[in-house]
Design a protein that fits this description.
The chain has helices at about 5-10, 15-25, 30-35, 90-95, 100-125, 135-145, 160-170, 180-195, and strands spanning about 1-5, 35-40, 45-50, 70-80, 80-90, 145-150, 155, 175-180, 200, 210, 215-220, 225-230, 230-240, 250, 260-265, 270-285, 290-295. The protein has one domain (about 1-50, about 70-295): phage-related protein like fold, CATH 3.90.1690. The protein is built from 8 helices and 17 strands. α2 packs across α5 (about 100-125). The radius of gyration is 22 Å and the shape is globular. It is of the alpha+beta class. Strands 6, 7, 8, 9, 10, 11, 12, 13 and 17 form a 9-stranded mixed β-sheet that branches. Strands 1, 2, 5, 14, 15 and 16 form a 6-stranded mixed β-sheet that branches. The chain is about 30% helix and about 35% strand. The N and C termini lie far apart (about 45 Å). A hairpin with a 5-residue loop joins β9 (about 200) and β10 (about 210).
Length: about 300
């Protein structure tokens, strides 16, 4: 069963762990919604749905043709290790904690760093032999061919192209449109020029979110605005995807994010807390994820 990190944190009685998870997910639109499947072992081999079988209409007494089976691609997604050591000098902890809980502040900053690393890898991870990360959605899209192009040399975003991207995700609307801040500004500008505005509503965290055609619009600061497409070097990418079992889903070892009290260090007068996560990413159907490449700034 897939479960989000937010729901998983409710099942823990560890106050420190709950606080770390809340810090990691509170500013991440992906981690707020992306469900994770707990797996045993160091990876998951699964069949990614590629094409459906062919069906036909028949007359009575007509011979039926040969079976046309669905096609699958066998994919292996491994768990990778991401984490950080939060070291707090005992002298600082003893003499400065009257002003601020130094240990809590250091752990919070390390939790944020883990979130940043996950969000970067979620987009740009290579997942190749020798790399220590998992395969991100840009690399997955390149392998599945689920891409819409703004042109050989890129072009300014249009609502028609964004609609084409949305239509590449089959079996319902995408759960999220993920883009850079520049692309969101372009989308807002296009919406205003069309005589309308993006919808605004509150999410489950009480924050205002924008929606295009009923789909939440989210920001990822690791989506580059300087990609090269043809002769243009100022291009960005917009992603659309569904999340959940049968779509785009996270993978994690039992226990999800873990917080360990390592304790006193031998080589220095400090206390260590370790944040670690055995995590990966799986796409169970090619039509649940797509990207729009070559998005240049509006003129």
């Amino acid at each position: 069963m897939a479960i989000t990190l937010a729901e998983a944190s409710k099942l823990s009685n560890d106050v420190l762990l709950t606080g770390v998870i809340e810090t990691i997910i509170k500013d991440s639109p992906v981690l707020q919604k992306l469900p994770f499947i707990e797996i045993m072992g160091n990876g998951l081999t699964y069949n990614r749905e590629s094409t459906l079988p062919t069906v036909a209409w028949y007359d009575e007494n007509e011979d039926w043709g040969a079976e046309t089976a669905p096609t699958f691609e066998q994919v292996t997604a491994g768990l990778e290790i991401v984490g950080a050591n939060a070291d707090v000098d005992n002298f600082i902890k003893a003499t400065r904690s009257n002003l601020q809980d130094v240990e809590a502040a250091v752990i919070e900053l390390n939790a944020k760093a883990v979130r940043h690393e996950f969000e970067d890898t979620f987009i740009n991870g290579l997942g190749t032999v020798g790399s220590k990360d998992f395969e991100g959605i840009d690399e997955i899209c390149q392998g599945t061919g689920q891409s819409v192009s703004m042109g050989d040399n890129g072009a300014s975003l249009t609502l028609d192209k964004l609609d084409e991207l949305i239509d590449m995700v089959k079996g319902g609307k995408p759960d999220l449109l993920l883009m850079s801040r520049r692309s969101r500004r372009s989308l807002n500008q296009l919406s205003r020029a069309a005589g309308s505005y993006l919808q605004v509503e509150r999410d489950e965290w009480g924050r205002f979110i924008e929606l295009y055609n009923g789909i939440p619009v989210a920001i990822n600061d690791w989506i580059a605005d300087n990609k090269v497409v043809g002769t243009s070097s100022d291009c960005s990418t917009i992603y659309a995807f569904q999340m959940g079992e049968g779509a785009l889903c996270g993978l994690t070892a039992p226990g999800n994010i873990q917080v360990e009290r390592v304790g006193q260090l031998e080589t220095k007068d400090a206390t260590r807390t370790r944040i670690k996560w055995y995590v990966g990413l799986a796409l169970f159907s090619t039509v649940k994820l797509a990207r729009l490449i070559g998005v240049r700034p509006l003129a």
